[in-house]
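User: Here's a chain of 653 residues. Predict its fold as tokens.
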Amino acid sequence: MTSSELDETANERQRSRDTREPGDEPRRRPAIDYHLVPEQNQWFIKVFRAATPGLTFLTERYERAWLGRDVTAGVAVAAYLVPQVMAYSAIVGVPPVTGLWTSLVAMLVYAVVGGSRVLSVGPESTIALMAGLSVAGLAGGDPARIIELSAALSLIVGAWCFVGRAFRLGVIADLLSQPLLVGYLAGAAALMIAGQLGKLTRTEVDGESIVDQVASFMDVVTGTHLATLLVGVATLAAILLIHRVRPAWPAALIGVVGAILAHVILGLDGFGVEVVGEVPSGLLAPRLPQVSWNEFQQLIVAGLGVAIMAYSDNMLFARGFPAPPLPGERPSDSEIEPQGELTALGVVHVAVGAFGGFPVSSSGSRTALAVASVAHTQVYSLVASACVLIVLLVAGQITTMLPQAALGAVVVYAATKLIDIEKFVRLFRFRRREFLLALVTFGGTMVYGILAGVGVAVALSLLEMGQRLARPRSAVLGRVPGIPGMHNVADYPDSETLPGLVIYRYDAPLFFANIGDLRRKVQRIVDEEQRAYPDTRLCWLLLNVEAVTEIDITASDGLTQIHGDLKAQGIRLGLVRIKRELYQPLQRAGVIDLIGHDLLFPTLPVAEAAYLKWVSSETLEVAQSDQTVDASPPPGSIQAVWAVEEGEADPSF
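Assistant: Prediction complete.
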């Protein structure tokens, strides 16, 4: 029944009520469908829609007016993507056609299951480097084995993503702070450049770490093939120049096309310049990679590292390049759901692995290009996929004229995009510790490799977080003339405190790692107060616990010890701005009964007023004694406030 029909029925009912005589039977109305029986397949539709947010958006909300921009963006991204992913294939150690297939499958699948409307998912430099290092030791230099192992690694990464989704581990992306990512990406860039030294000079460079590679290169640098070096340097110079003069142009594609033309016109093969060689064209069928159980087991740990980094990249670039909000849509509506993105990335990797591809993530450079081209939806990825498919059908002839050094130059160019000197400078200016963390991660990644770099980055993130919680900021609070409220006395030279009273704020949850720090600081405050005012005894020390959102049993016992230390010095411990969430565990631990309800206060002004009232009614000699006080909730105490809220007391206090 439509809304207009319902309104008419309501009007008719009102008219009948107005004209009905007392005692008349009410007129019956049409029955409605109360939907007590669920519709068949409704649950399946809901699950399908939740699992395919990209497809759901394209089928339900796509507007024809966006098509022109999406097509333009797709062609631009494809022009940049083709030489880029062929170069990333060289990083992994697989033929360029494998990189093209990987990008094709990744873009098609993500357009269906992905949550971002503009993210470009596919081969990415750091993930390619991680994958290459992970399979190099197992493959023994055999290109066929590298293909199988990298495909198996993709399946393992997909499995780890599904495990993460099952345990709701999307929070892992938050463990990589900005300083660590800056250092990590710079270290990965250095590894990428070192890995191309052999291709740019046509020498044999061995080693997995950058130290080994540089040492190996120094042994063979005198055997550099000059023509190969000139091709690589010229290609890199052309790409950098085009990018600087015409940033909107596909610099990498122009550089690669120029190298192909130079090979044909100048006959570079006659000068000994090696080419990529012919690669198989045509369509692939999905299959399982042929790897042994022992190889599969060895790839499990590496797959976890790749999964963490791939997901972190995905979430960071998704936050950095949000889709433009549509008419009537809030900016937050275009944000992707972290847990759902884990599932999407898992599905993408399973599909990529089934087609013999290597692990992927999102590309910041391609996403930025799509956003700059005003792409509205993942239709641009579908257009880019069509362009890649055309290249795949003719790629065999193209790569027979593409110099290896040119691909090496594209990799070096991509590496330079990962090194952001301005961010290092910004970290140095912001805080020296943040800058040091970036340098440590940079060095760890270069010296110990890309996988160890991920571990170093995560470990340092956790250590830094733990250090901030274990040694948080704190402040003694006082009044400042002319400024309402209470403030950190260290920030205002003219701040004032009440004689015999110290209010101390500790800005962190209390747990086993920082309760010792709190005990030491409390005693330091007592010593400093009594040293500054030897003629006035400190009577009350109130702990402002507004930032203490949680407490464990070790910290509860620590508060008991603080109470005992203060009591031995004739000082009473109280708590200000205590919440129910903190009150309940402290009550279970016996701390509340030890402190006493008369020293629990809801606000700072109430605490000051209670202290002043206590001073006016008690002498200092009585205050310093161990006299038992009335434990009933005085007016203004936290217990009185809660009693009013629960309707158990008169709120007139």
